[in-house]
Amino acid sequence: MIIDGKQIAKQLRVNIAKQVTKLDRKPGLAVILVGDDPASTVYVRNKDNACKEVGFYSEKINKPANITQAELLSEVERLNNDNKIDGILVQLPLPSHLDANQVTEAISPNKDVDGFHSENIGKLMQNKAFLRPCTPKGVMTMLATTDIDLVGKDCVVVGASNIVGRPMAMELLNAGATVTICNSKTQNLSDKIKQADVVVVAIGKPKMIQGDWIKQGATVIDVGINRLNDGSLSGDVDFDSAQDKAVWITPVPGGVGPMTIATLLENTLTAYKAREEK
Ligand code: GUN
């Protein structure tokens, strides 16, 4: 069976839009894009459009690729102090002369809707999460729509990035699963995957995970989005062979992708509510 991320994300947006109509002030999201990387430009535009769809206040801030670290930090600081803004997101990757880690740490943890600030990552690790990274949280929302009980299940996460793999492993651990975190150097990767009840893959290698690596009846979550030479999109999993083995599987496109932005809206609403309660 397919986990329809497009549909689940749509439902999330409808729920958020309904809540927004009851609020006195619109939740506000600021997205900073440095430079004009084509993929990042598309992501930022999609985030802005999603904000408009649910009735949020949205600021799309384009900065030239040659902005200095000090100028970028001062823009973040301005937004930290802007009462219209509940969430701040700096689109990654940044040009190489900029220190992305320092920028992430400069965002107020209360407005850190990416959940990348060390304070929010620390809370996630202690199972006291406030703002949680969007893609892993979106995957948990997708898993919640299935009938799978994660407690005691063997979960394998392939990929150990700060954006997906590491927080994904924490989310699954917090849900009571037994978690194995693999990376690009993992030995006998197929053996690890073969014993998994749930596999989450985020490595950026098209169709790397083969169907015969998947345990019969497993759940397969594919975070990869890879552009093939023929222009089509493919995940990190070989969907055609994996779908014969999996009980639940996410497609690419239309799987995890739409969930990330819907979860960003959810996080912005969480940050809004926390600020309003203060
Ligand atoms: N680049 C790729 N994914 C993300 C994300 O979730 N947040 C930000 N800020 N940049 C990204």
Q: What does the main sheet amount to?
A: 5 strands, parallel
Which word captures the global form? globular
Bound molecules: guanine
Sheet with the most strands: spatial strand order: 5-4-6-7-10
* Proportion of strand residues: 15-25%
Q: In oligomeric terms, what are we looking at?
A: single chain
- Helix count equals 10
Please tell me about this protein's structure.
The longest helix is centred in the C-terminal third of the chain and has 22 residues, at 256-277. With 278 residues, this protein is α/β, with parallel strands linked by helices. The chain is 41% helix and 15% strand. The model has no long low-confidence stretch (mean pLDDT 97). A hairpin with a 5-residue loop joins β8 and β9. α1 packs parallel to α10 and α6 packs across α10 (256-277). The chain is globular and about 50 Å long. Guanine (GUN) binds at residues 89-92, 114, 134-135, 163, 260.
What's this model, at a glance?
The protein is α/β, with parallel strands linked by helices and 278 residues long. It contains ten helices and ten strands.
Summarize this structure as a short list of keywords or feature phrases.
single chain, 278 residues, alpha/beta, five-stranded parallel sheet, three-stranded parallel sheet, 10 helices, 41% helix, 15% strand, binds guanine
Layout of SSEs?
Blueprint: H1 5-20, E1 28-34, H2 38-54, E2 57-63, H3 69-80, E3 87-90, H4 100-106, H5 118-125, H6 134-144, E4 154-158, H7 165-174, E5 178-182, H8 189-194, E6 198-201, E7 219-222, E8 226-227, E9 233-234, H9 239-242, E10 248-249, H10 256-277
Parallel strand pairs: 1-2, 1-3, 4-5, 4-6, 6-7, 7-10
Antiparallel strand pairs: 8-9
Helix pairs in contact: 1-10, 2-10, 6-7, 6-10
Guanine (GUN) binds at residues 89-92, 114, 134-135, 163, 260.
